[in-house]
Amino acid sequence: MKIKTTIILISLLFGVFVFAQTDEAESSQITLAKSLVAKKEATKAKIILKGITTKDPTNAEAYFVLHEVELMLGNINEAQEILKKAIDADKSNSDYREHYEKIRELVNLLKDGQREYDVSSFDDAKKIYEQALADFPDVSEINYRLGIIALYQDDYKTSADCFDKATSLAPNVEKYSKARYNLVGKYYKKGVNALKLGDSENASRNFKICVEIDPKFVHAYLQLGILKVKSGDLDGAIATLKSGVNAAPENEAAQYNLGNFYKKAHQYSKAVIHLRKAVELNSNYDIAYSTLGSTYLALKKYDQAAKAFKSAIKLNDKSAASWDGYGALLMQQKKYSEAIDALTKAVEISPRNFNAYYRIASCNNNLGKYNEAIEAAKKSTKYQPRFGAAWYEMGIAYGMLDQKSNAISSFNRARTDRNWRKVADYQIGLLKDGKSIQP
Questions:
Q1: Which of 168, 196, 211 is the last residue of a domain?
Q2: pTM for this one?
């Protein structure tokens, strides 16, 4: 009998010991969750508290802290329901009931704010949400709604700040994390629409707002750069794209566009640096390879140019620009038949490519195929009547066929392009003096 009694006592003592250990572990976990809430790490705290309340549905303190987490995450109704469970688990705690009344007031304020918002009374809605925020500064939903109001009122700075606060409180909630992106999208769209209306000043303003909100928004830097180019400020365009690259150095589009602007400015060595970086970041970037090829061509680095053009064509054999550029390279290397093959592919893809037709004409003239040269030059001038280079090649072909009047007529058309006036006048002088032209 004594042995039986002893066993029962040991069992009771062991049970008390285990219970004490469990209680201590839960208390430690709640303390950890509270510290995470203080650090605004709501998601981590929620995992811990959910574990506690699942094992022990009577833990009032865990429910109370969990309701704070749900508020932070913007789950107002869930917070209200969880707080009810805390009250049920500890009916003597007056603090819990006071908090419940506050949340009920919050719910009513949010409803009132939504009603004002729905009828576009944004100032009134803003006042209501600000009132709610004064009592609940760490509720993501309130910050988010204030951000939306600021967005409608064109106050992008306040909107961005509110969205940032909401995201910091609830980083895993999609509508909060996308809010800043949508904000940038609004101003980018406004900028694009202004461009369509020819309003460059307003477009520039909106694109500048985009990069102010999101310094890594490369599309806006590009649009600002294009606006600079249109105004004749190529240096300004380069400076703008450099800002874009500094903000997002791992963005291949930023690197490509800066390289392309350097190329336009004939700063080919600098262009190569950024174009190479673009293809390092994205080995499938066919346009960057093509532009790199034409940049190497300008530097007379023919082997590197050929390698770049071949990479571009391998990635995208439907790129007229790549075939055209490769054809131009082959022309420089005096590989005229191969050049014609490449250029023919360019015009098959892009039938109005007057540059490629001009190059075909030039290649044919160098091969002594003057009728073919005339045919290609005519196609070039059909699509670009003021293109002096094609008229000049046509004049050469007619001159070599001893069709003097057609040659002079073609050279006269060429001389209207000031880039070709001097050489066209020289050929006309030779023909009028009864001499042969000098190709």
A1: 168
A2: 0.76
